[in-house]
Amino acid sequence: MRFKHGIKPEPSVIMSLLFISALLGGCATSGGYTVGPGTSSKVVKQSAGVSSRPAVPLSVVIPVLDPNIPDDPNEYAEKSIWPELRRAEANRFAVKLRDSLADTEAFGSVRVSPDKTATAHLYVNAKILTSNGEDIEIAVRLVDISGKSLMKKTYKHRVTEYEFEDPRLAGKDLYSKVFELAAKDIAMVARKQKPKRIAELYAIEEMRFAETFSPDYFSTYIRTSSSGVTKLMSLPADDDVMLNRVKSLRIKDQMFVDNMQVDYENFRNDMNEDYLLWQKQAFTESKAAREAAAAASAKMFVGLLSVVAGAAIAGNSGSDLGNYGGAAVAVAGMATIAEGFQDSKEATAHRESLSEMGRSLNIQLAPQVMEMEDRTLKLRGNAVEQYTAWRAYLLDVYNKEKTPDIEL
Question: 230: burial class by Cβ within 10 Å (0-12, 13-18, 19+)?
């Protein structure tokens, strides 16, 4: 298989995948999956027996973040949300988290995916809680392919004026600390996984992928509870014909997801200049709004204490009302940061660029032309559309190659 767009996996990566596939043999379901490919079938109890399998690096998939955009447009201003920007950030933050995880050198591979259906050993599911130029807060949940939750934590950072003024940070994304902290914790959890558990995750991951092609056959090797947690029941034989056929498709699928990383990288880079300008302007407005609101709250608290103490406040009521009014104006300004991001023609251009990039949560991928063994495959559309078409192609290949009669 040859890709005409994007990166080509290095030989060492392919050999590693082949080695891992050869090591593991495979995994039945009765419940619904929370991550990874989805399907279900009947249960067959057998012995798993994977304790002798060696520990190898785990793979990680980071689905595009949940932008946390309210259904009610009236809440956008109240929560300081610019929908187009949030959708763009959902992709940008996924790439930043990917890079931070890769820097830990704790994983075999780290990939961004348009959704949770891509196959991996670990999934980092995250949601944007706050992003207003001054404050960044994200909720992160680490789940393995079995559906077991390994970590759940919220990360936040408040940008300071010092960071903006520090020449060493010029042109840098000042939100980076959040992703670095999250990556450090995720890597720590991954490194604590026992060799036996890692072997189980490899087997479950392989069976989950294989199950998408032949659910009746491969679902006998794993069982999934009603809560969505999958348990390995047994492994196919090393020379299992059905499994060996799926292994080659697994390698192709990983190469396809690797190729998508170029598009996510380009998306992040293309919005960088516009985003950093927005971040700086939004920081100024958000900080001013927060400080004005805090000052007004302090005035109100003093006023309440005065009432309790029986002090006369009538003479000061005018100034208090003035402060409360100022706070209301400040909060309103914070709620319309996007509107304030158009003080000049240059700022307007940056705003329009970000709005265009954030029209959809699914980024547009460059058209891909792949020379396959049996045909030339052309893919167009956004990330979800191309990946869905790609998986449909793999299923078609599998169905054409499978043996008519399988002796169980």
Answer: buried
pLDDT, one tens digit per residue, over 115-146 is 999 999 999 999 999 998 888 999 999 999 99
Where do we find the tokens 């799926």? 246
Rounded CA separation 113/212 (Å): 18
This prediction's pTM: 0.74
Axis crossing angle, helix 345-357 with helix 83-103, rounded to the nearest 10: 70
Segments of 119-224 assigned E as strands: 122-131, 135-144, 149-158, 222-224
Q: How far apart are the first and last CA of the chain?
A: 32
3-state secondary structure of 138: strand
Q: Which of 213, 192, 215, 211 is nearest to 203 (CA)?
A: 211
Place of tokens 């995720």: 186
The answer to whether residues 394 and 253 touch, using CB atoms and an 8 Å cutoff, is: yes
Query: 80: alpha, beta or left, given left = phi > 0 and alpha = psi -120 to 50?
Result: left
The number of C-alpha atoms within 13 Å of 138 and in the hemisphere containing its C-beta is 28
Q: Where are the domains of the chain?
A: 23-243
CA distance 158 to 65: 20
